[in-house]
Amino acid sequence: MTIYGVGYDTIEPTMTPVLSNAEVLWNFLCEGRRSRPSDLLVVCGSYDLRVCDYACELVKLGLAPCILITGGTGNWTKHLWDRTEAAVFADRARSQGLADDQMLLEDTARNFAENIAFARAMRPAAKHVTFITKPNSVRRVYQTLPIQWPEIEALVDAPSFSFPWGVSNCIGVFGLIEEMVGDVHRLLVYPDLGFQAPLPVPEDVLVSWRFLIAEGFNRHLLSPPYLT
User: Fold this and answer.
1) DSSP single-letter state for residue 73
2) Which of 21, 44, 69, 104 has the fewest CB atoms lying closer than 10 Å?
């Protein structure tokens, strides 16, 4: 794992003001991780294969009979792979010991709303569903569920790793900060557009969010007129 080309295995990075404020966003966005025995685990595709690894562990522990992997190509993965997230995750699941009959694949979803809606279309009879995603996406999945699949009892879970030491080297720490700034923006804007259920964003999170925007982490903000 590296920042500025420095390996975390050899040098412990300093918590700069940027990292300290980013950690505030991380802690807020990760809140609410829980899992339990379910009819189905829905695995939201992304650049982080540890999401798939964690879902496979839960299946092996007996928390669900199978996984539904959903994901086409996203902002990050279109630059990483020449296949869909679902296809890459399926290969990863096989390497973790899951059989093909323990997997369902949905390979067109482009965002969390579609992850949920397309999973619902594939398994409409499911009642208890656990969604597995990246830690910093837990809040967004929770807030999207009441819009896209309100009738189920749902939980959201994620693999456990810390910020910044555990960040995926596919996008790096700065890439993750860009993503989190965009996530908070969507939590602020999407309820008014009908895309997510409303969620109060604490003032300390807003202060850190604005600090990071002022520092130039603005590439994943929504375009005007939705700038806050």
Assistant:
1) -
2) 104
